Amino acid sequence: MSDSAKDPAKLRSARWFAPDDLRSFGHRSRLKGMGFDDADFREKPVIGILNTWSDLNTCHSHFKERVDEIRRGIFQAGGFPVEIPVLSLGEMLMKPTTMFYRNLLSMETEEVLRCHPLDAAILMGGCDKTVPAMLMGAISADLPVIFFPAGPMLKGNWRNVTLGSGSDAWKYWNERCAGNLCDRDWWEIENCIARSAGTCMTMGTASTMAAAAEALGMTLPGASSVPAVLAEHSRLAVATGRHAVSLAWEGPCPSQIVTRESIENAVRTVLALGGSTNAIVHLIAIAGRAGITLSLDRFDELSAQTPLLANLRPSGEYLMEDFYHAGGLRAFLAQLLPLLHGDCLTINRCSLAAQVRGAEVIDRAVIRTLDAPLRGDAGTYVLRGNLAPDGCVIKAIAAEPRLLKHLGPAVVFDSYSEMKSKIDDPNLDVTPESVLVLRSAGPLGGPGMPEWGMLPIPRKLLEAGVRDMVRISDARMSGTSYGACVLHVSPESWAGGPLALVENGDLIELDVFARRLRWHVAEDEAEQRRQRYQRPIARFERGYGKLYEAHIQQADQGCDFDFLRGRTLRLEPEIH
Q1: Between the chain's N and C termini, which has fewer beta carbons within 10 Å?
Q2: What confidence score (pLDDT) does residue 299 get?
């Protein structure tokens, strides 16, 4: 855009600062009270920097430096940067789960964008739920935004072993419980598995959702793959700041980018990466904010049609640092492009196809091609049956193949605390053929649908050499997790779903390739149990928890609040 076409009077922020009236006098004078003057904010785009930094969010611990680099880019391009702290969702330290607060951050993002004199904004996130939350809020507000991913941490190293966060924590904990790992080794692993700032370096939820954001067209090209502590990440921050200024003048807005086709690009990208099952819930919610219905069945259809191209843990061999050096997401998308809607618009005001053109795969052991995939489908399946009438999911590529068709008796835990207290009891009536069942772990039951779905293997079975079992719950599991874990059972037990009626010893049949999860109980017996079932009472009497309980939707609907779904006209605040 030429300088002559950049009319400051058309900037959204001009509604606050340009008029010669008492209210605008107050707006300008308060900025001047902070040391700014007319040259800072008059006739320049105001660029909001929504920063999710926190001392209790490891993934974002480098954001103090990155926000200054983003400011530099905004200044270089002639904008006025304003940093606005928003809720930081740190996966490791927030309880019961950051998923409980995802919608709260989405609402804050929407309202912060709407109520301030912003012409465009940068969304600084990365840790699992920050990505979907900020995208959901931005779609609802529909101001020009660009997402800046935190980036993965560097690979962990222990002696001569490369460690991946999450995945190797589960693995070595099992070995310790089995008596195969001493306390000293466990302590050493604790000290070196998280090597730097940044998100998990496996293809966990954070990297999965960052890749989804890029495939949607909401980041600079290649942004989702850059490790958090490299100089390239600092340069990405500066470039993101510069580009945000151009968005203020020229757009586009999320409503022009987030379409049914771009959502399907994100879904295919997640599937071909072997990404986290959490992305299913988040992408359904993101689509819902844009007024698009994305069903579990569509996920299953796309999974069957999409080959697995990324050899990344927990279902593969390599880590995100390797993926970056192998060419990153641009090179990956260039391989996947024949299966994508390449004409989708991105924030770079070009098509997705143009954005990845010329990207080269450096290491084909990490990033495969369509004619030589790791497997012909993505390996994520949607199951249905009388135990999950509205669906559930399993990441079959992360499970032992022998368990993908299985019949076994249920061992039921009514809550996570009960499971934790009983799972290692030597007298627990459990065998390798048992099906571990956890309930009260869904959107309402958790609350927040915590990442409890990778139920621990009982210690006595670990000692006998067992490393995987069929496990069923209405919970989620970490994207770094693995195993034959059936997740997101819907409707959840807390809402009276069939999972609430299962008893110890009931036979449960899993047949992944038939897309079936069947509870072997007679209909009259099930009905008698249903008549005896008493739904739990509400646990919140006030505040956000009360709002959450009243409006949260089930997993197959994306766990958004019912009143936030759908695209509406942007509501601009009245300036008075």
Answers
A1: C
A2: 97
Both 209 and 349 in one domain: the answer is: yes
Q: Both 185 and 147 in a single domain?
A: no
Tell whether 478 is covered by a domain.
Answer: yes
CA–CA dist 29, 310 (Å, integer): 54
What is the distance between the alpha carbons of residues 4 and 11, in angstroms, rounded to a whole number? 14
Q: What are the structure tokens assigned to 486, written together?
A: 């059936």
Nearest to 461 by CA among 437, 432, 487, 489: 432
Q: Give the helix/strand (H/E) hosting 231.
A: helix 231-250
DSSP-derived secondary structure for 523-557: HHHHHHHHHH--PPPP---SHHHHHHHHHBPPGGG
**Contact at 8 Å (CB) between 518 and 406?**
no
Q: Looking at the 3D structure of the chain, how many domains does it have?
A: 3
User: Is 164:196 a contact under the CB 8 Å cutoff?
Assistant: no
Give the domain range for residue 184.
Answer: 157-192
Q: Give φ, ψ of 176 to 5 degrees.
A: -65, -45
Closest C-alpha among 495, 489, 449, 414 to residue 96? 449
Whether 283 and 294 have beta carbons less than 8 Å apart is answered as yes
Q: Are 142 and 12 in contact (CB under 8 A)?
A: no
Taking the CB of residue 42, how many other CB atoms lie within 10 A of it?
16
Tally helices (H) and strands (E) across the chain: 21, 14
462 and 443 in one domain?
A: yes
Q: Which two tokens stand for residue 42?
A: 């008059």
Per the structure block, which two tokens stand in for 360? 């080269």
Q: Does residue 391 come out as left (phi exceeding 0), alpha (psi in the -120 to 50 range) or beta?
A: left
Q: Is residue 19 part of a domain?
A: no
Residues in a beta bridge with 523 = none
Distance CA 251, CA 266 (A): 21
Tell me the pLDDT band of 4, cut-offs 50, 70 and 90: low
- Establish if 573 belongs to a structural domain: no
Verify that 348 and 473 share a domain, yes or no.
Answer: no
Q: Which residue has the tokens 């192998």?
A: 326
The DSSP bridge pattern shows strands 46-51 and 80-85 to be parallel
Beta bridge partners of 470: 435
